[in-house]
Amino acid sequence: MNEQSYSYEALQNQKKFYDSRFQAGYMQDFSGLFESCRFYAMKDILKQIKSSGFNPATILDYGCGEGRYLNLLKDYFPTSALHGCDISDEALTIAKNIYSSAQYTPMSDETVNLPDNSFDLIISIEVLEHVGDVAQSITEIGRLLKPQGMTILSTPCANKFSFEWWQNRLTGGLQPSFDGYGRFKTDEPGHLRRLCDRHLKSLCSDVGIDIYKIYHRAHLFETLAPKGRLFKRIPQACVGFGMLDWYLFKNFPNGSTMIALGKKR
C-alpha cells in the first residue's frame, strides 16, 4: 500500500476501532462544509421520496453512528417507527442522547439481530466503505428490508474521471484494497474500499434489490468553497456554493460520492 492506507485495526477489530473513535469525538461536529452538503443532499432525496407518496411505517438507519440522520428522517416521516444500529456501543450511547425516541440495536460485524423483512425503508449513509465485508452488509440490508421496500445507500464512489479520481490518478494515489475494489490514497484510514456504480448495482441485485437511480456528488465546488474563518462567518453562503456540485452534477456519473436508490423485489 502507498503511504496513506487503510487502518488494519479498522478491518481486524472494527468495534474497538470505532468505539475508540467515538470516544475521541468522531463525527460529532456535524456543522462542517462537507457534512453540511451531504446533509442537504439527503434532505433533497427524502423530499423526493416523500413527494412520491411513499410513507414507510418502519425505518432503519444501518450504521447510524451518532444518530444525526434519525432526526432528519423524523422530520420527513413523523409517524414512522425509527430504528438505528451500529457496531459501536459508544456511538449508540451518543445516539440515544441525541434522539431518544428511536430503538437501537448493536451490530455484530455486519449483522443485526432483527427479524427478516422488518423495514419499509433502510438508509445507510457513508457506511459501506467502512465495513469489513461489504457483500455481507448488503445481504443483511436485503434480509431486513420488506418486499417492495426502499433503500438509500450513500458511499464514496470510484467511478473514473471525478475530481477526486483525477486528483489521485495524477499523484499515484489509486490504491488496491484487500477485497479487490480499490480505494484512493486521500481516503481516511477507516475507508477500506470505494465502489463503482456497477459494483453496487451487482451486489444489490444479488440480494433482490434493484438500484433504479444513482445520484452523485462531485466534491468540486465543495473543495473550492471557503473554509476556516470565512466559513464560520458566512456558513450558509459557503454551503450554498458547495451545493452547486449537487444541483449541477448530480445526474452525471463522475461523482466522488454516490447516493443510490433501490427497491426490493
From TrEMBL:
SUPFAM superfamilies recorded: S-adenosyl-L-methionine-dependent methyltransferases
Keywords annotated in UniProt: Methyltransferase, Transferase
GO BP terms, alphabetized: methylation
Pfam families reported in the protein's UniProt record: Methyltransf_11
Domain Methyltransferase type, first and last residues per copy: 60-152
InterPro entries, alphabetized: Methyltransf_11 (IPR013216), SAM-dependent_MTases_sf (IPR029063)
CDD domains recorded: AdoMet_MTases
GO molecular function: S-adenosylmethionine-dependent methyltransferase activity
PANTHER family, sorted: METHYLTRANSFERASE TYPE 11, TRANS-ACONITATE 2-METHYLTRANSFERASE-RELATED
This protein's name: Class I SAM-dependent methyltransferase
